[in-house]
Amino acid sequence: MAPRVVVFNNMITPYTNRLYNELVDRGLDLAVLSCTAQEADRCWAGSFEPRYTARTVPGLSIPLSRSRHTHVNFWIGRALSALAPDLLFVNGFYPSMLAGAAWARANGRALALTIDGWRETMPDTAYHRLARPRLLRHCNAVVCCSDRGRDYFRVEGVRDGDLFVVPLVPAWDPPEDEPAFDERPFHLLWCARINDDAKNAIFFENVAIALGRTLPGLSVRVVGSGAAERRMLARLGAAGIDVAHDGYVPWQAISGVYQQSRLLLLPSLLEPWGLVCNEALQCGVPCLVSPHVGAGGELVRDGDNGYVRALDEQAWVDAARAVLEHPARWEAMSRSARQSVLGNALADAALRFMAAVDHALGTPALREAAQ
Asked: Does residue 309 have a pLDDT over 90?
């Protein structure tokens, strides 16, 4: 009988569901236990079909600063006992995850951690400085989504052999058609929550307004909602910029938004990875991101498929003009963008996750059987 693996996370997303379904198709006996069906400002619950056992435990979702949530759930031990994992992956360090880890230790089950983020985005409160090393000491494997994440946990004392990088993969495949520069009506794209504390919406507004002074007829596509939504739309409109706004576009249809856009701007102050960059690139949209975006420098390569720029408004205006005023340069970056997204990205992520499972369980034959 194959070992049972349970992932205990905060919630299932369309892109994690895609990976989990792929793992099941490859023979992994997987179940997912979640703290909540959907956090605030999310709209995707019920929009995808898990091919694995999925359960949600009752509890509270508590919003914290800088777009974070913590979860306090009840009857976690009962739920885990019913799912009976041989290996438990926890997805963070908040109280519910620690309760799950305690259950695994008390019942002699293997424990691992799967988490996004890197040094800048990992909380460094007194609670985390106490809880994080205690949890890591008992993990047989740590799964990150980036090299930056791996570097962070290496500094935290996790051995190289216990670290695995499993890249994030969008919930949908790259579209087949590739609209050219002139076929994309929007110069700039914002696709994120509209706030200042994490996403830095005010910086985007300032760059767009400054760019509009030198680029006549500037048009902006805005997808998202949040605390700064009304201000963003009002400021852009007052500057005479043509704006199209949707508070939400279903993930099954979002590729159409990217295919209408020429350049994605993501000036985040806090961004564990930035899956929006994967999505944009696979639609041929170059990305202009801040150094605080996890994907910056790894997936988004400066001068190749986009730009990584410090948060200096003039530097961003200059970078945007470099592609928006030169269609041939944009076409070259657009090709690089599509080429930078692996055609077998989902299979690669699944195999990497299976390798982490093998390692955590000490069963190297498991991956070969699944293949």
From this structure: yes
The set of residues, in sequence order, having a beta carbon less than 8 Å from that of 88 and lying 6+ positions away, is 5, 6, 8, 80, 100, 101, 103, 104, 109, 110, 111, 112
Q: Looking at residues 12-29, what average pLDDT do you find?
A: 97
The string of pLDDT tens digits covering residues 67-94 is: 566 778 899 999 999 999 999 999 999 8
Asked if residue 187 lies in contact with residue 324, where contact means CB atoms within 8 angstroms, the answer is yes
DSSP string spanning 6-40? Answer: EEEES---HHHHHHHHHHHHTT-EEEEEES-S--T
Candidates 197, 196, 216, 217; CA nearest to 205 is 196
Cβ atoms within 10 Å of 129's Cβ, excluding its own: 10
pLDDT surpasses 60 at 366: no
Q: What is the pLDDT of residues 228-286, one digit of tens each?
A: 999 999 999 999 999 999 999 999 999 999 999 999 999 999 999 999 999 999 999 99
Q: Which residue has the tokens 């991956």?
A: 367
Phi and psi dihedrals of 14, rounded to 5? -55, -35
Domains and CATH numbers, the chain: 4-172+344-370 (3.40.50.2000), 181-339 (3.40.50.2000)
Residue 63 has pLDDT above 80, yes or no: no
- pLDDT mean over 184-209: 97
Q: How far is CA 140 from CA 95, 163, 202, 248, 297, in A?
A: 20, 9, 42, 39, 29
The phi, psi pair for 15, rounded to 5°, reads: -80, -35
- Please name which of 267, 261, 271 lies closest in space to residue 315, comparing C-alpha atoms: 267
Cα dist. 331→61, 150, 183 in Å?
Answer: 44, 33, 12
Backbone angles phi, psi at 302, to 5 degrees: -60, 125
Q: What is the distance of C-alpha 111 from the center of its chain? A: 23
Is the predicted pLDDT of residue 65 greater than 60, yes or no? no
CB within 8 Å of 178: residues ≥ 6 apart? 284, 334, 338
pTM value?
Answer: 0.93
Buried b (16+ CB within 10 A) or exposed e, 169-186: bbbbebeeeebebeebeb
Per 3-state DSSP, the chain is made up of helix, strand and coil in percentages (nearest 5) of 40, 20, 40
